[in-house]
Amino acid sequence: MSGSAAEDLNIDLVASLCPKCGAPSTATIFDRGGKVYQRSQCACHEPVEDLIFSDTALYRKLDEWNRLVFPDAPTADLPPGNCYCQQDMKSGNEPCLAVIDITNRCNFRCPVCFAEAKGEGSHYQLDLTTVRKMLQALLDRPVPCRSVQFSGGEPTLHPEFPAILRMAREMGFTHIQVATNGSKFADPGYAKLCEDSGLHTLYLQFDGMSDEVYVKMRGQRLLDKKIAAVRSVEQTNMRLVLVPTIIAGVNVDQLGPIFRFALEHSRFVTGISIQPAAHVGRVSVEEDGAEPFNLAAMAREFGEQTGLTRFPDDWFPLNSLSLLSRAIDRVRNQRSHPPLSDAHCSVGTFFYVDDNNRPFCLNSFFDLGGFLRGMAQVKPMSEQGLIERQISKIRQFSMLSSRLDKHKTPPGLTFQRLIRSLDAWEDKNDGRSEGWDQRGFNGIFVAGMHFMDAHSYNLRRLHRCIIQYVSTDGELIPFCSYNAGARLRESEELVRIEDRPVSGPAQVPSAAMPAQDTTIDG
What we know:
Layout: E1 9-17, E2 24-32, E3 35-41, E4 48-53, H1 56-69, E5 97-101, E6 112-113, H2 128-139, E7 147-151, H3 161-170, E8 175-180, H4 188-197, E9 201-205, H5 211-218, H6 223-233, E10 239-243, E11 245-246, H7 255-264, E12 269-276, E13 282-283, H8 295-306, E14 316-317, H9 321-332, E15 346-353, E16 359-361, H10 368-375, H11 386-402, H12 415-426, H13 428-432, E17 443-449, H14 459-463, E18 467-470, E19 476-478, H15 479-482, H16 489-499
Parallel strand pairs: 5-7, 5-18, 7-8, 8-9, 9-10, 10-12, 11-12, 12-17
Antiparallel strand pairs: 1-2, 2-3, 3-4, 6-13, 14-15, 15-16, 15-17, 18-19
Helix pairs in contact: 2-3, 3-4, 4-6, 7-8
């Protein structure tokens, strides 16, 4: 590693876990040569340094958003004496999306799989009564969570998956998605069955537009099957998010081709969720000595491969949208689940797609950053009188319209159409309701979400987690406690395997294998 301690510039000090033994530690985050590293150390081991972000300027920009979104957060949040309790491994946020693994069985055995799912060995599949209790636990929270993702393993292998979808719909869940490898959705009849049962969105494993990529990462040629699954969904009113796991030296060059494919199918593909590979679970794909892929590398590469975004100007953290959600909640006098994740967990950009299927980065003609910062100034309705409320609506409309550069706006895009597009972005119900494809708006959200591993573990990020697993006893577990760090997935799955009915001697779960994938599927 180049550089020296004398050249390092400290950025932050965070609570972490030792990459070697998992013991509580303190980690220093610092700049070296324009890139961001994390140095972790516990009492028993020498310091370990790892690159976590390949551009310091973007990292500091994300810090600025954290200060805006979390104005009351302490400047230092280290537990005294590096003594962590169980509460330190939980999130202080309500989930924006809850994940329920309904089985650990999978029909693939991918060389990369954070869940270590496989076709052989001990398996479980949750019964309907257990799934209902887990769903009810989400509805019984102080602010009910009505967005759920069914995952695994490959959830479609659960023989009662359509019944689980119907149950979730009947219980009042407003956004129901599945994390899937797409194998069963290649059958149009199965896709239609899932739509009729209540499924809204497929979170589809999609690593590239080359079978060479799938052979390396999934162990088999899969491109035709992925395209067949997309075509099946296009015969329904469901929507798709493409989910590529990206590994340096393997499929970084697929970002552009994946976006072009998404654009060709933009009436149904509403987003791309890019997930840099984190070293948890199972991995046997070599990175060929390349610099680890991270969110900064993603944003830069996407712009270079598509020519559609500026680095870092057009990229914003997911938590910036919480300013919009909070403003809407204040005006409506309601409580929802704003995406209050840490800014370093996810960054993205949004494209308006015109009637000729041409993409325009929203920030190229609309001051998204200025608009979102302005949303932080919106007052609650209860603090305003009737006349002031009406004036406030006019002011907010004026503020929004003033952020639109009419000289750069795509042809045919009116202010009203933009508002409608943003409504669908913020409100998934509007975006997928009957006739959504004829309302005159279209868009694709491109985002990266980088899950933590031993090299980047940060308890501040963990405490702000908004994607949380539901255990069988109804407890919520942050994504990066379930799959990394404490890796609570292993103990939870052991309980499920031991509790399931068996017709013979119980099988012993296979030993955990080293290292990873980040697609939320099997």
